[in-house]
Amino acid sequence: MGEVDFIFAIVILIMSVVIHEVSHGYMAYYFGDVTAKMAGRLTLNPFKHLDMVGSVIVPTIAYLSTGFIFGWAKPVPYNPYNLRNAKVGEPMVAFAGPLSNFTVALIFGSLMRFGAIPIELLQPAGLIVLINIVLGTFNLIPIPPLDGSKILFGILPYRLKYIQHFLEKNWFWLIFIFVFFVWKMLLPIIYFLFSLFTGMGL
Question: Among this protein's residues, is 21 annotated catalytic?
């Protein structure tokens, strides 16, 4: 990936994590919480969401160390106590983020699959698909503070709450181990989804 391509990838990542966070906010709003709206975070303006570490530094390190680019934006605030039916609302708020990324990947992937994108734009479109698949997949990992943990905690039976306590206590080391030693095991899933959405291989 050249310098220009890398900068373009960062721009795609930033917009993708913005969509991700805004989706959390809108889902919370749907369930009755106006915290994100009152904070002015229900907007696609990236300057409202940028996190220098998660949106620039980590993506750069991730690409240089793993070959893939991922990151995050500032979390959209929400108050779970304001949600109607919090038992359903909290996992749905968490799931909205990864779902938005898979939706973006599916839209652009379908345009590629059915020839609706000019050939000269296939590479940028493919990068949009790939980055959003990576974001969606990565955020479904059930380790705090990733969305997958909130989904897991929302459906975890009370008798298994010790799993939640373990994950919350050891999340930093678990994330470290996952990123540097386990992440590449998910590459076949990412390649499969890319091929499924676009009809093309990586």
Answer: yes
